[in-house]
Prior knowledge:
Keywords: Membrane, Transmembrane, Transmembrane helix. It comes from Amycolatopsis alkalitolerans. InterPro entries: UPF0478. By secondary structure, the protein is an all-alpha fold. The chain has a domain at 1-91. The chain is 96% helix and 0% strand. It has one helix and no strands. It has one helix at 3-132. The longest helix is centred in the middle third of the chain and has 130 residues, at 3-132. The chain is rod-shaped.
Amino acid sequence: xxxxxxxxxxxxxxFVLLVVLVAIPLIKLGRTLDEATIAIRKAHERSDPLLIxxxxxxxxxxxxxxxxxxxxxxxxxxxGNVSALSSVFTATLGSPLVKAAAxxxxxxxxxxxxxxxxxxxxxxxxRRGRKGSGRS
Length: 136
């Protein structure tokens, strides 16, 4: 065998060794990609029921929100009616009640002033006489 043939055999052996060393990571990478593909497929299969459940939940929530919207509209109408009723009450009864309260306050103040004046006209002597008279 000549030196060229030996060099060719060494080069061929080195090439085979290189192919084997590169093939091992490629095989492992292929298995990893297969596992990733299987995991993605399983996740996709399991996500369909989850998405359907989420869609049902959103539909139910929307129904409840429509009910709440109706309730708030009714509450707004009731508050408007109460406001109007209180305005009517204030207009019809509020003013006369305020006048009656002011009149009764004025009358009670006048009665107190009259009693005070009457007690002052009798004088402090009449009270002293009662206290000092010795009647018990």
